[in-house]
Design brief:
This protein is an alpha/beta fold and 449 residues long. 64% of the residues lie in helices and 6% in strands. The chain contains 20 helices and seven strands. It has helices at residues 14-25, 45-54, 73-86, 105-108, 121-135, 144-149, 151-160, 171-188, 191-205, 211-227, 242-258, 267-287, 294-319, 322-326, 333-352, 355-375, 383-401, 404-407, 411-430, 436-448, and strands at 4-9, 29-32, 58-62, 91-96, 112-115, 231-232, 238-239. Strands 2-1-3-4-5 form a five-stranded parallel beta sheet, sandwiched between helices. A two-stranded antiparallel ribbon has the order 6-7. Strand 4, helix 4 and strand 5 (112-115) form a beta-alpha-beta unit. The radius of gyration is 27 Å and the shape is elongated.
Length: 449
């Protein structure tokens, strides 16, 4: 079940009844303000309307005149209550374009949508439904790294979405939440758990999914199918085998074609970023497969570079969107994605013998890693996230030091960096926080000499 919609009305409840009938065919649950018979003269504000409002999480407010040419006073009471309860983005006020209704000056032009209407109820109702559906395409109004840090909230949104309690967000919003849930699962090492959760969610409710929700769930499952099959070579390099890569690539290319571009929200922009960045990573992993010839390995590195360029275009488009700017996402998840892409470009250039590109992308990924580690200090986010930022920072730092001569690093800076790495490794060993990434950092540092 989707959101529970409270319908506020004035004058006649006929429009409200028609809205309810249509929305319930779309899996929304609707409650019309008033008592069970929808006759407001028998309703008690205290024991009926307020309880109805508390049981819902969105509202459609149909502003119409009564027979005496005025808007019902009850409508303004209910409007105030739903605004306080749900917030303005979840309250959808409408009126007929050809009906003169007297409203407070702050509401008339800026807050109440005028629905084009030739006078017929059918046209008015269809206009309301279209307006409501468009308004569901909302962007997530929170810094995404903070959201990832509090991933239990996303878990709750998923659990409630088709429950009798009613969802806390629209399908469109949940599709975005699931993309960030994917990222949280990757960073917290919960891939197997979240893949299982998404599979169960899909098996139970896929017939009710919107296009965006279906796409987000499929992206999540496909990503963890790939991640959970990463293997390690004897030299510590990570790779995926041919069958894993081909299945992942084919699914992701198909999902890229399924994205519906729209101007209402940012799901399409986020989905493109996830797909292009993951394809960059997958090609890089597959290029390290020990079964590949040197020639085929280089071909896949070139493909990784191609998808990195696509990812840059997708990131720039997303970076310029108002919701991303307003939520300072460039200081969190976008910085993380840039760091991922820069690192894969560094690895590609290294494999292809492009020394200039190799140094350029290494410097850029180090800058992003440093910024992430600085912006999200111990205590500001979950310790596991901070550890994730730290591991990737120190891995990059060791690679950076291996180019000390080419980068013309100062001897004092080199010594400071080495001491920093030693302290990190000593601390992680003391806390018994070993992982395959920390072990790789330790191995590379020993090789550095």
């Amino acid at each position: 079940m989707k959101d529970n919609i409270f319908i506020v009305w004035s004058g006649s409840n006929e429009i409200a009844l028609k809205i309810k009938k249509i929305l319930e065919t779309k899996n929304y649950k609707c409650t019309i303000g008033g008592n069970a018979d929808n006759n407001s003269q028998f309703s008690s504000v205290g024991d009926t309307v307020i309880q109805q409002i508390k049981a819902c999480n969105q509202a459609i407010v149909v502003v119409q005149n009564r027979a005496d040419g005025k808007v019902s006073n009850n409508l303004f009471f209910e409007l105030g209550y739903v605004l306080a309860s749900y917030g303005q983005t979840k309250v959808h006020c409408v009126k007929r374009s050809n009906e003169q209704v007297v409203l407070p000056s702050d509401f008339d032009n800026s807050f109440v949508e005028s629905i084009p209407c030739d006078g017929s109820d059918e046209q008015f109702v269809n206009g309301i439904i279209n307006y409501f559906i468009d308004r569901q395409k909302m962007s997530i109004n929170i810094n995404k790294m903070i959201l990832i840090n509090n991933r239990y909230k996303i878990h709750d949104y998923i659990q409630r979405h088709f429950s009798e309690q009613g969802s806390k967000c629209s399908d469109y919003e949940l599709a975005q939440y699931i993309l960030f849930y994917l990222q949280a699962g990757h960073m917290f090492g919960d891939g197997e758990k979240i893949r299982k959760e998404m599979k169960q969610f899909k098996d139970r409710f896929h017939s009710y999914f919107s296009d965006e929700l279906s796409l987000a769930v499929n992206i999540c499952i496909a990503f963890f199918d790939m991640i959970l099959n990463i293997k390690s070579r004897e030299d510590g390099e990570f790779y995926i085998e041919r069958s894993t890569f081909r299945q992942f690539r084919d699914r992701y290319l198909e999902y890229r074609e399924e994205i519906i571009d729209d101007d209402m929200g940012t799901f399409d922009e986020w989905a493109k970023v996830f797909l292009s960045e993951h394809l960059t990573y997958a090609y890089s992993l597959y290029s390290c497969c020990p079964d590949l010839s040197e020639e085929n390995s280089k071909k896949n590195m070139e493909k990784s570079k191609y998808w990195a360029e696509v990812a840059f275009q997708d990131l720039k488009l997303l970076e310029n969107s108002a919701p991303v700017r307003d939520n300072n996402d460039h200081k969190g998840i976008l910085s993380l994605f840039y760091a991922y892409v820069y690192r894969n470009l560094f690895l590609s250039c290294k494999k292809l013998g492009d020394k200039k590109g190799e140094l350029e992308w290494l410097i850029k990924t180090k800058k992003e890693r440093t910024m992430l580690k600085t912006n999200f200090e111990v205590g500001s986010i979950d310790s596991q996230l901070y550890d994730n930022f730290s591991m990737e920072y120190y891995l990059t730092l060791i690679e950076y030091l291996s180019y000390a001569e080419e980068l013309e690093l100062d001897e004092d800076d080199i010594e400071d960096y080495r001491d920093e790495i030693k302290t990190y490794l000593k601390e992680t060993k003391r806390q018994s926080e070993h992982s395959k990434y920390v072990e790789r950092i330790d191995l590379l540092f020993k090789q550095l000499g």
